[in-house]
Protein backbone atom coordinates (compact mmCIF):
# COMPACT_ATOMS: atom_id res chain seq x y z
CA UNK A 1 0.00 0.00 0.00
CA UNK A 2 1.49 3.30 -1.14
CA UNK A 3 0.77 6.07 1.34
CA UNK A 4 0.52 9.79 0.76
CA UNK A 5 1.27 10.62 4.41
CA UNK A 6 2.86 8.65 7.24
CA UNK A 7 2.54 10.22 10.70
CA UNK A 8 4.84 9.11 13.51
CA UNK A 9 4.29 9.65 17.22
CA UNK A 10 6.52 8.79 20.16
CA UNK A 11 3.39 7.74 22.08
CA UNK A 12 -0.21 6.91 21.27
CA UNK A 13 -2.09 10.27 21.22
CA UNK A 14 0.89 12.38 20.04
CA UNK A 15 -0.33 12.37 16.45
CA UNK A 16 -3.92 13.22 17.36
CA UNK A 17 -2.88 16.15 19.53
CA UNK A 18 -0.26 17.47 17.13
CA UNK A 19 -1.76 17.01 13.68
CA UNK A 20 -5.14 15.32 14.01
CA UNK A 21 -6.86 18.06 12.03
CA UNK A 22 -4.43 17.78 9.13
CA UNK A 23 -4.85 14.00 9.05
CA UNK A 24 -8.65 14.23 9.14
CA UNK A 25 -8.58 16.79 6.32
CA UNK A 26 -6.22 14.64 4.27
CA UNK A 27 -8.24 11.43 4.59
CA UNK A 28 -11.48 13.25 3.80
CA UNK A 29 -9.82 14.45 0.59
CA UNK A 30 -9.00 10.89 -0.41
CA UNK A 31 -5.38 10.77 0.75
CA UNK A 32 -4.02 7.53 2.16
CA UNK A 33 -2.62 8.12 5.63
CA UNK A 34 -0.99 5.78 8.15
CA UNK A 35 0.06 6.25 11.77
CA UNK A 36 3.08 4.65 13.48
CA UNK A 37 3.39 4.88 17.25
CA UNK A 38 6.96 4.27 18.40
CA UNK A 39 6.08 3.13 21.94
CA UNK A 40 3.05 1.76 23.75
CA UNK A 41 3.13 4.58 26.29
CA UNK A 42 3.79 2.14 29.10
CA UNK A 43 5.28 4.82 31.38
CA UNK A 44 2.19 7.01 31.14
CA UNK A 45 0.90 8.14 34.54
CA UNK A 46 -2.63 6.89 33.86
CA UNK A 47 -4.15 4.03 31.94
CA UNK A 48 -2.51 0.83 30.70
CA UNK A 49 -0.95 -0.21 27.40
CA UNK A 50 -4.04 -2.31 26.67
CA UNK A 51 -6.39 0.60 27.29
CA UNK A 52 -4.28 2.96 25.20
CA UNK A 53 -4.21 0.48 22.35
CA UNK A 54 -8.01 0.35 22.37
CA UNK A 55 -8.18 4.15 22.52
CA UNK A 56 -5.74 4.45 19.60
CA UNK A 57 -7.89 2.12 17.51
CA UNK A 58 -10.94 4.27 18.16
CA UNK A 59 -9.04 7.46 17.31
CA UNK A 60 -7.76 5.90 14.08
CA UNK A 61 -11.32 5.18 12.92
CA UNK A 62 -12.35 8.74 13.73
CA UNK A 63 -9.47 10.14 11.66
CA UNK A 64 -10.07 7.68 8.81
CA UNK A 65 -6.50 6.41 8.51
CA UNK A 66 -5.66 3.38 6.39
CA UNK A 67 -3.66 1.61 9.08
CA UNK A 68 -1.93 2.03 12.43
CA UNK A 69 1.00 0.10 13.88
CA UNK A 70 3.19 0.19 16.97
CA UNK A 71 6.95 -0.43 16.83
CA UNK A 72 7.06 -1.17 20.58
CA UNK A 73 10.20 0.81 21.35
CA UNK A 74 10.73 1.44 25.05
CA UNK A 75 8.73 4.35 26.41
CA UNK A 76 11.02 6.96 27.97
CA UNK A 77 14.08 5.42 26.37
CA UNK A 78 13.81 6.12 22.65
CA UNK A 79 17.30 6.16 21.16
CA UNK A 80 18.47 7.35 17.77
CA UNK A 81 20.52 4.24 17.07
CA UNK A 82 20.96 1.84 14.18
CA UNK A 83 18.46 -0.72 15.47
CA UNK A 84 15.66 1.83 15.79
CA UNK A 85 16.53 3.55 12.52
CA UNK A 86 16.34 0.27 10.60
CA UNK A 87 12.87 -0.45 12.03
CA UNK A 88 11.65 2.89 10.75
CA UNK A 89 13.43 2.55 7.41
CA UNK A 90 11.66 -0.75 6.83
CA UNK A 91 8.28 0.90 7.43
CA UNK A 92 9.10 3.90 5.21
CA UNK A 93 10.31 1.70 2.36
CA UNK A 94 7.27 -0.52 2.62
CA UNK A 95 4.64 2.24 2.58
CA UNK A 96 6.59 4.79 0.49
CA UNK A 97 5.03 7.98 1.91
CA UNK A 98 5.58 11.27 0.11
CA UNK A 99 5.13 13.19 3.35
CA UNK A 100 6.23 12.25 6.87
CA UNK A 101 4.85 14.01 9.94
CA UNK A 102 6.72 13.58 13.20
CA UNK A 103 7.26 14.89 16.72
CA UNK A 104 8.64 18.33 17.40
CA UNK A 105 12.40 18.70 17.85
CA UNK A 106 12.34 20.50 21.21
CA UNK A 107 9.58 19.77 23.72
CA UNK A 108 8.75 19.14 27.37
CA UNK A 109 8.81 15.33 27.02
CA UNK A 110 12.31 14.10 26.16
CA UNK A 111 10.92 11.30 23.96
CA UNK A 112 9.49 13.85 21.55
CA UNK A 113 12.80 15.41 20.57
CA UNK A 114 14.54 12.04 20.43
CA UNK A 115 11.78 10.66 18.21
CA UNK A 116 12.04 13.70 15.94
CA UNK A 117 15.78 13.16 15.41
CA UNK A 118 15.32 9.41 14.96
CA UNK A 119 12.67 9.79 12.28
CA UNK A 120 14.51 12.58 10.48
CA UNK A 121 17.69 10.50 10.22
CA UNK A 122 15.78 7.36 9.23
CA UNK A 123 14.04 9.26 6.41
CA UNK A 124 17.44 10.18 5.01
CA UNK A 125 19.12 6.79 5.22
CA UNK A 126 15.99 5.16 3.80
CA UNK A 127 17.02 6.68 0.47
CA UNK A 128 20.50 5.12 0.47
CA UNK A 129 20.69 2.43 -2.21
CA UNK A 130 23.47 0.43 -0.55
CA UNK A 131 21.49 -0.04 2.66
CA UNK A 132 19.75 -3.40 2.35
CA UNK A 133 16.52 -4.05 4.25
CA UNK A 134 13.56 -6.39 4.03
CA UNK A 135 9.98 -6.32 5.26
CA UNK A 136 7.89 -9.44 5.80
CA UNK A 137 10.45 -11.47 3.87
CA UNK A 138 10.67 -9.20 0.81
CA UNK A 139 13.75 -7.16 -0.15
CA UNK A 140 13.11 -3.43 -0.26
CA UNK A 141 13.99 -0.63 -2.66
CA UNK A 142 15.31 2.73 -1.38
CA UNK A 143 12.71 5.40 -0.65
CA UNK A 144 13.10 8.90 0.73
CA UNK A 145 10.02 10.99 1.61
CA UNK A 146 9.87 14.34 -0.14
CA UNK A 147 8.84 16.30 2.97
CA UNK A 148 9.30 15.76 6.71
CA UNK A 149 7.36 18.14 8.93
CA UNK A 150 7.43 18.36 12.73
CA UNK A 151 4.04 19.04 14.31
CA UNK A 152 3.67 21.24 17.37
CA UNK A 153 3.20 19.66 20.80
CA UNK A 154 3.57 21.25 24.25
CA UNK A 155 6.14 23.97 23.52
CA UNK A 156 5.42 26.94 21.30
CA UNK A 157 7.51 27.35 18.16
CA UNK A 158 7.76 29.56 15.08
CA UNK A 159 6.01 27.62 12.31
CA UNK A 160 7.20 27.24 8.73
CA UNK A 161 3.83 25.91 7.55
CA UNK A 162 0.28 26.60 8.76
CA UNK A 163 -2.51 24.33 7.56
CA UNK A 164 -6.15 25.39 7.65
CA UNK A 165 -8.08 22.78 9.68
CA UNK A 166 -11.20 24.85 10.31
CA UNK A 167 -13.64 22.20 9.11
CA UNK A 168 -11.81 19.39 10.91
CA UNK A 169 -11.25 20.80 14.37
CA UNK A 170 -14.22 18.94 15.83
CA UNK A 171 -12.88 15.68 14.41
CA UNK A 172 -9.47 16.38 15.91
CA UNK A 173 -10.96 17.04 19.35
CA UNK A 174 -13.10 13.89 19.09
CA UNK A 175 -10.00 11.81 18.31
CA UNK A 176 -8.16 13.30 21.32
CA UNK A 177 -11.11 12.60 23.60
CA UNK A 178 -10.88 8.95 22.55
CA UNK A 179 -7.91 8.81 24.93
CA UNK A 180 -10.20 8.96 27.92
CA UNK A 181 -7.56 7.47 30.22
CA UNK A 182 -5.17 10.29 29.37
CA UNK A 183 -7.22 13.46 29.02
CA UNK A 184 -10.18 12.91 31.39
CA UNK A 185 -9.61 13.28 35.14
CA UNK A 186 -11.68 11.00 37.37
CA UNK A 187 -11.59 9.79 40.97
CA UNK A 188 -9.08 7.01 40.19
CA UNK A 189 -6.63 8.90 37.95
CA UNK A 190 -3.70 11.07 38.94
CA UNK A 191 -3.44 14.70 37.87
CA UNK A 192 -1.27 15.41 34.82
CA UNK A 193 -0.71 18.31 32.47
CA UNK A 194 -3.06 16.80 29.87
CA UNK A 195 -6.06 15.93 32.03
CA UNK A 196 -6.67 19.37 33.48
CA UNK A 197 -10.05 21.02 32.90
CA UNK A 198 -8.62 23.47 30.36
CA UNK A 199 -6.33 21.17 28.37
CA UNK A 200 -8.74 20.57 25.48
CA UNK A 201 -9.52 24.29 25.45
CA UNK A 202 -5.79 24.97 25.12
CA UNK A 203 -5.67 22.76 22.02
CA UNK A 204 -8.47 24.80 20.49
CA UNK A 205 -7.28 28.28 21.36
CA UNK A 206 -3.75 27.62 20.13
CA UNK A 207 -5.14 26.40 16.80
CA UNK A 208 -7.41 29.42 16.76
CA UNK A 209 -4.45 31.74 17.22
CA UNK A 210 -2.57 30.13 14.33
CA UNK A 211 -5.73 30.36 12.25
CA UNK A 212 -5.83 34.08 12.98
CA UNK A 213 -2.42 34.45 11.34
CA UNK A 214 -3.69 33.07 8.02
CA UNK A 215 -7.24 34.49 8.23
CA UNK A 216 -9.04 31.22 8.99
CA UNK A 217 -10.73 29.95 12.13
CA UNK A 218 -8.29 27.16 13.02
CA UNK A 219 -4.86 26.03 11.82
CA UNK A 220 -2.16 23.54 12.77
CA UNK A 221 1.50 24.51 12.89
CA UNK A 222 4.50 22.65 11.49
CA UNK A 223 8.24 23.18 11.22
CA UNK A 224 10.59 21.90 8.53
CA UNK A 225 14.32 21.32 8.98
CA UNK A 226 14.84 21.69 5.24
CA UNK A 227 13.78 24.30 2.71
CA UNK A 228 10.53 23.40 0.98
CA UNK A 229 10.70 23.88 -2.78
CA UNK A 230 7.77 24.46 -5.13
CA UNK A 231 7.52 24.17 -8.91
CA UNK A 232 5.73 27.44 -9.54
CA UNK A 233 5.07 30.59 -7.55
CA UNK A 234 1.34 30.05 -8.17
CA UNK A 235 1.56 26.95 -5.97
CA UNK A 236 1.67 29.36 -3.03
CA UNK A 237 -1.88 30.51 -3.69
Keywords:
237 residues; alpha/beta; Rossmann fold; 7-stranded mixed sheet; two-stranded antiparallel ribbon; 9 strands; 37% helix
CATH topology label: Rossmann fold
The major sheet is characterized as: 7 strands, mixed
Number of strand elements: 9
The strand order across the widest sheet is 3-2-1-4-7-9-8
| Helix and strand composition category | alpha/beta
Summed up, the domain count is: 1
Order of helices and strands: EHEHEHEHEEEEHHHE
Q: What is the rounded distance between the termini?
A: 31 Å
Counted by DSSP, the helix tally is 7
Helix content: 25-40%
Radius of gyration: 17 Å
* Poorly predicted runs: none
CATH superfamily descriptor? LmbE-like
The CATH class label is Alpha Beta
Strand content: 15-25%
- On the 0 to 100 scale, the average pLDDT is 96
CATH architecture: 3-Layer(aba) Sandwich
What is the approximate shape? globular
Task: Write a concise synopsis of the structure shown.
By secondary structure, this protein is an alpha/beta fold.
Question: If you had to describe this structure to a student in words, what would you say it looks like?
Answer:
The chain contains seven helices and nine strands. By secondary structure, it is an alpha/beta fold. A seven-stranded mixed sheet has the order 3-2-1-4-7-9-8, sandwiched between helices. Strands 5-6 form a two-stranded antiparallel sheet. It has one domain (5-225): LmbE-like (Rossmann fold). The protein starts with a strand and ends in a 13-residue tail after the last strand. Helices cover 37% and strands 18% of the residues. It has helices at 14-28, 49-63, 82-95, 110-125, 169-177, 180-183, 199-213; strands at 5-9, 33-39, 67-73, 99-102, 134-135, 138-139, 147-151, 161-164, 219-224.
Amino acid sequence: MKLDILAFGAHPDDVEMGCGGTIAKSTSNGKKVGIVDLTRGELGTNGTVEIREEEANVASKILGVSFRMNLELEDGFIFNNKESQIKIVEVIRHYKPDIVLSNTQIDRHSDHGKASDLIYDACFISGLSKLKTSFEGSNQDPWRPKINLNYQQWNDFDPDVLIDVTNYMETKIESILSYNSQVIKNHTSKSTKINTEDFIDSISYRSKNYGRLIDVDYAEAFQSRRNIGINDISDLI
